[in-house]
From TrEMBL:
It comes from the Bacteria. Residues 9-80 form the MIP18 family-like domain. PANTHER family: FE-S PROTEIN MATURATION AUXILIARY FACTOR YITW (PTHR42831:SF1). Coiled coil: none annotated. The lineage of its organism: Bacteria, Bacillati, Bacillota, Bacilli, Lactobacillales. It comes from Paucilactobacillus nenjiangensis. Pfam families: FeS_assembly_P. This is Metal-sulfur cluster assembly factor.
Length: 105
């Protein structure tokens, strides 16, 4: 369990390198990442996430960037992205720092 928590923290740290080009904020602080799950047996890492809006034109870009970041870990053989719409994204999911940077108080 401790290894899973440490791995998840490392993945979330790597995902902070994935910047939403429209907003200039990383996807973790935007609150788009809902979870990371690693199957240690198969090496499949599943990233559960949402988008700010359905039909977001950046979904392919974000998927590619997420896959690139997560596949860099030795433990990972495959990256799967689980795109969900519930719970719906809202600005409350953003970190305090992201809201301040975007001028949302």
């Amino acid at each position: 369990m401790a290894n899973q928590v440490a791995f998840n923290e490392r993945v979330l740290g790597a995902l902070e390198n994935v910047i939403d080009p429209e907003l200039g904020i990383d996807i973790v602080n935007l609150g788009l990442i809902y979870g990371v799950d690693m199957d240690e047996t198969t090496g499949v890492c599943t990233v559960t996430m949402t988008l700010t809006i359905a039909g977001c034109p950046l979904s392919d870009y974000l998927n590619d960037a997420i896959e690139q970041e997560v596949s860099g870990f030795d433990e990972v053989n495959e990256v799967k992205i689980n795109l969900v719409w519930e719970p719906a994204w809202s600005i409350e999911k953003m970190s305090r720092e992201a809201r301040i940077e975007l001028g949302i108080h």
